[in-house]
Amino acid sequence: MTEIPQSALAATLYLLPGFIAAWIYYALTSHPKPPQFERVIQALIFTFIISTIAVPIQFLLIWIGNNWMAILPWNEATERTTSLVIAMFLGGIAAFISNTDSLHKSFRKFKLTTRTSHPSEWYYILSKKVTFIILHLQDGRRLYGWPKEWPITSDEGQFYIMVPAWINEDGNQIDLPELDGILIRARDVQWIEFINQGNSDE
User: Fold this and answer.
1) Fewer CB within 10 Å: N-end or C-end of the chain?
2) Residue 2 pLDDT class (50, 70, 90 cuts)
């Protein structure tokens, strides 16, 4: 059995909080996981942020222990536990900011960017335009309904369309009341129409 070098083990333990924060972020958002090298870079960035946050927390906990109530001694184990708690909190905050587009929304107001925090324009529009849609399929058929689920990109994943109805060439609808919904592959969709219900975007 091959032994893990001590340097590799130490590097893994050092980056563990960053990897945990990144794992929580990708688990709670629709962003696809980047290649391995970029994930290591992200873990380094998260680890740096976590280490920076941990310093004042360490002083605070030591002060509380010296002046009020000591629960555990501050050692390597408690330091690692504190870093893991910060990592989980940081990953959740990063996911919340990404899912709500709050940071990029502020940046757009100040003309610092025109981008969003969502993984693609496709996903952003479908998440913001809460309305019935018409899917124009590659074979010429049109499907009307409510998009319960949608893919991140236009070439992978599926739509789950509830309250579905086929639209004939003359514009008449064929309702399908016996169905809860229809699953459509994203690559079978040529384009999408969004029904105007008077909703205004930002």
Assistant:
1) N
2) low
Q: How many residues does the chain have?
A: 202
Condensed to tens digits (0 to 9), the pLDDT of residues 127-151 reads 888 889 999 999 999 999 999 998 8
Distance (Å, rounded) from C-alpha 34 to C-alpha 15? 17
Domain boundary, last residue among 60, 79, 108: 108
Give dist(CA 64, CA 129) in Å, integer: 49
| Structural domain that includes position 103 | 6-108
Query: Nearest-CA neighbor of 49 among 76, 18, 11?
Result: 18
Position of tokens 């999408």?
192
Query: What CATH number is attached to the domain comprising 153?
Result: 2.30.30.100
Nearest to 74 by CA among 56, 66, 62, 83: 62
Number of domains in the chain: 2
